[in-house]
Structures are given as structure tokens and as C-alpha cells.
Amino acid sequence: MRPTEEQRFLTQLFYRHSVEIYARFDDWKDIDKFYFIPLYMEMTYSCGWVAEMAPDPVWLGSFVRCTLEHPELFQYNCPDCGKVVHPYRYVGSPLSGIVHLEGRCECGWHGNEEVSGWRIRASALRRQINGDKFRYCKHKLKHCILKDSMIGEVLEWMRR
Ligand SMILES: [Zn+2]
User: Fold this and answer.
1) Which of 7, 107, 117, 137 is the most buried (most CB within 10 A)?
2) Ligand 1 center to residue 20 CA distance, Å?
3) pTM, to two decimals
């Protein structure tokens, strides 16, 4: 599946505003339409074959929760001011094991931290996404029921 222009745009917005989005997680985490915003982060590595941290699209809520719940894997201190940085993307290679955690700090710094341990980070992210699948299905189902009832309304209206 290829990303739409809108999905690329949403992903860029997340990259730009990640500090605010992380800070307000508690406010939006229970709202399905925000939690399941599909991001195309291209967290892939390829050399003849392609290895992904997790297949795109990655849901915004799953990604943010994964970073927040595994500080030892994904968070680091800003080299400028020392505050905690929450990355907006993880990119690396399963061969070298090196991962770059791209992030932005409250102070305005942005860049990346190089760490090692590709597999442990990839599996943490995939576990989070799998854990959210049930909620995603319920969210989708609700949408379908909503659409069905709208078609129902149209039919009812036409038959009056
Ligand atoms: Zn900083």
C-alpha cells in the first residue's frame, strides 16, 4: 500500500510538532480517530532486502505509547539542555544493530541519537501495534455501523 499525500503530510506534521503531541498524550490517547492516525515513517533499512522496524502505516498512538512506555529503549537526553527527548522516528539496520532515534527537544534542538539494539526496539514497537489491533477493529466496526445506518437513513428518506 502506498501512502497518500495526506498521510505524508500528517507524518510531516507529527515530526514537526512531536514535542507538543507527546506532552498532551493523556489528553488524546482515548480518542480513536487521533490514536489511529496512520503515519508513513519509512523506518526501513534495505540492502537487497528490506527490513522494517514495523510495517507502515504505524498508528500515531501506538508509536507514541511505545516511546513513552519504554524510556530505556527510546528516550535520551538532549545534548544542548539535558531534557528528555522523545523521538518521532526510529531508523536503523538489523545487520549492524545501530538505530538512530530522530527527535526534537523542547529547547528547539533536533537531531538523532545513535544506539545499538535494532531487534529489541523493533519487537517492542511491533508488540505495541499488535496490542492495539483489537481496539482498532472495534474502532473500524463502529465506523462501518455508522455508515450502514446512514445508507439506511437515505433509503428510508427515499421511500417516504
Ligand atoms: Zn534541549
Assistant:
1) 7
2) 14
3) 0.88
